[in-house]
TrEMBL record:
Gene Ontology BP, a term: amide biosynthetic process
Entry similarity comment: Belongs to the peptidase M20A family.
Transcription found in the keyword field: no
Domain Peptidase M20 dimerisation: 80-216
SUPFAM superfamilies reported in the protein's UniProt record: Bacterial exopeptidase dimerisation domain, Zn-dependent exopeptidases
Pfam family name, one: M20_dimer
Pathway annotation from the record: Lipid metabolism; fatty acid metabolism
Function as written in the Swiss-Prot or TrEMBL entry: Secreted enzyme that regulates the endogenous N-fatty acyl amino acid (NAAs) tissue and circulating levels by functioning as a bidirectional NAA synthase/hydrolase. It condenses free fatty acids and free amino acids to generate NAAs and bidirectionally catalyzes the reverse hydrolysis reaction. Some of these NAAs stimulate oxidative metabolism via mitochondrial uncoupling, increasing energy expenditure in a UPC1-independent manner. Thereby, this secreted protein may indirectly regulate whole body energy expenditure.
Entries under InterPro entries matching the protein: Bact_exopeptidase_dim_dom, Pept_M20A, Peptidase_M20, Peptidase_M20_dimer
Protein name, per record: Carboxypeptidase PM20D1-like protein
Entry keyword set: Carboxypeptidase, Hydrolase, Metal-binding, Protease, Zinc
Record's catalysed reaction(s): an N-acyl-L-amino acid + H2O = an L-alpha-amino acid + a carboxylate; N-(9Z-octadecenoyl)-L-serine + H2O = L-serine + (9Z)-octadecenoate; N-(9Z-octadecenoyl)-L-tryptophan + H2O = L-tryptophan + (9Z)-octadecenoate; N-(9Z-octadecenoyl)-L-lysine + H2O = L-lysine + (9Z)-octadecenoate
Domain of life from the UniProt record: Eukaryota
Length: 318
C-alpha cells in the first residue's frame, strides 16, 4: 500500500501525463475475507457505474529468486488465475470418562487416523490440464538444456514433468488442489477422555476443480462413517483464467512494466496460489491479473504468515 501511494505521489510531483483513468482500491481486511473492505468498494463502484474496467491488477506472485528448478533466471510470475479456497472441519467423537479406562480408540485417535490421509499431495496431480502448462512452456527458453528439452516437448514428456514438479517447492503448488492441516484440537486435561476432537483442513482449489469436487474427494478419502466432515465458513470457487496472449492488453501492459523495472527477469503467466481481494471484482472484467513487484527466495518463504512476519526492504524498493 505504501509503495502504491508513494508512486501516486511521485506521479503528482512530476506532473506525469496520465493517458488512461485508473482507480486505486485499498481494502483493510483482505485477511478477513474482505467483507468490509473490497466488498464495500465493489458495491460502491457498481452503484456509481464505475465498473467498465479494462483490467485489474492485485497482489500476487513475487519475483522468485533461484527458486524454480532448472531455470537460470529470477522469474516474475503474473497470476492469470487464482486458486479457490475451502476450509474443511473433521470431527470425531468417543465415550468420555477417566483415562485409566480408555476405549480402543479415543476421539483423538480416530481423528488422527483420518487426518493422516491429508498429506499435501492428497489430491491428484493435474499437471497439463490447467494454466500451469502455459507456465512451464513459457519457462522453457530460460531453462538449462535438460529442462528445456522437457518443457518444449510436453506432448512427450508431460507425465515426467508432472512427476518432477511434485518435488519442486514452488511449482508443486500449481499442479493440484493443495492440502494443509492447520488446526488440531482435542482434550483439555491429561486424565480425562476427550468426548470430541476436531481438525481443520485448508485447501487451495486447483483452477479446474471446484468446491463440490473437493468435498466429494475428501469424503471418499476418509471413507469412515465415524468422522464427520463439513465445510467451515465461506468457500470460494477458483477464479476464471484471464487471457495472457500478445493481444491481451492488460497482461502485456503489466509484462512490459515488469521488464522496464526488472529487465533481467523472466516473465511468465502463472496461478496465484493464495487468496486476494479480486474475488469481489470478478464481474467487472475478464482481465484480472495478480503480481507483487518484489523479490522472494525459498529461504524467505516462511516470512509470509510465519514467525516475525515482515517485509524485506527488497520487497519495497525497485
Amino acid at each position: 500500500m505504501i509503495a502504491i501511494l508513494e508512486a501516486l505521489e511521485w506521479m503528482l510531483t512530476k506532473r506525469s501525463e496520465i493517458v488512461r483513468s485508473f482507480y486505486v482500491a485499498i481494502g483493510h481486511d483482505e485477511e478477513g475475507r474482505g467483507l468490509d473492505g473490497a466488498a464495500k468498494i465493489a458495491e460502491f463502484m457498481r452503484e456509481y457505474r464505475l465498473d467498465d474496467i479494462e483490467f485489474i491488477l492485485d497482489e500476487g506472485p513475487y519475483i522468485f529468486q533461484d527458486s524454480i528448478t532448472g531455470v537460470r533466471r529470477n522469474v516474475a510470475m503474473i497470476g492469470i488465475a487464482e486458486k479457490g479456497l475451502i476450509n474443511i472441519r473433521l470431527t470425531a467423537k468417543s465415550s468420555v470418562g477417566h483415562s485409566s479406562l480408555p476405549p480402543q480408540k479415543t476421539s483423538i485417535v480416530k481423528l488422527a487416523e483420518a487426518v493422516s490421509r491429508f498429506k499435501s499431495t492428497a489430491h491428484p496431480n493435474r499437471f497439463g490440464q490447467g494454466p500451469e502448462r502455459e507456465t512451464i512452456e513459457s519457462l522453457a527458453p530460460y531453462c538449462s538444456l535438460f529442462y528445456k528439452i522437457l518443457y518444449t516437448n510436453l506432448w512427450l514428456f508431460g507425465p515426467l514433468v508432472g512427476y518432477l514438479l511434485e518435488n519442486d517447492p514452488l511449482l508443486s503448488s500449481l499442479i493440484r488442489t493443495s492440502t494443509a492441516v492447520t488446526i488440531f484440537k482435542g482434550g483439555v486435561k491429561d486424565n480425562v477422555l476427550p468426548s470430541e476432537a476436531e481438525a481443520i483442513i485448508n485447501h487451495r482449489i486447483y483452477p479446474l476443480d471446484s468446491i463440490e469436487t473437493v468435498l466429494e474427494f475428501d469424503r471418499n478419502l476418509i471413507n469412515d462413517p465415524e468422522i464427520q466432515l463439513e465445510q467451515l465458513g465461506m468457500a470460494v470457487e477458483p477464479h476464471p483464467i484471464s487471457p495472457a496472449g500478445k493481444q491481451a492488453f492488460g497482461y502485456q501492459t503489466i509484462l512490459k512494466s515488469i521488464q522496464q523495472v526488472f529487465p533481467a527477469v523472466a516473465v511468465v503467466p502463472g496461478v496465484m496460489y493464495a487468496a486476494t481481494d479480486t474475488r469481489w471484482y470478478l464481474n467487472f472484467t475478464k482481465n484480472i491479473y495478480r503480481f507483487s513487484p518484489g523479490y522472494l527466495s525459498l529461504e524467505n518463504l516462511s516470512i509470509v504468515h510465519g514467525h516475525n512476519e515482515r517485509n524485506l526492504n527488497s520487497y519495497h524498493f525497485n
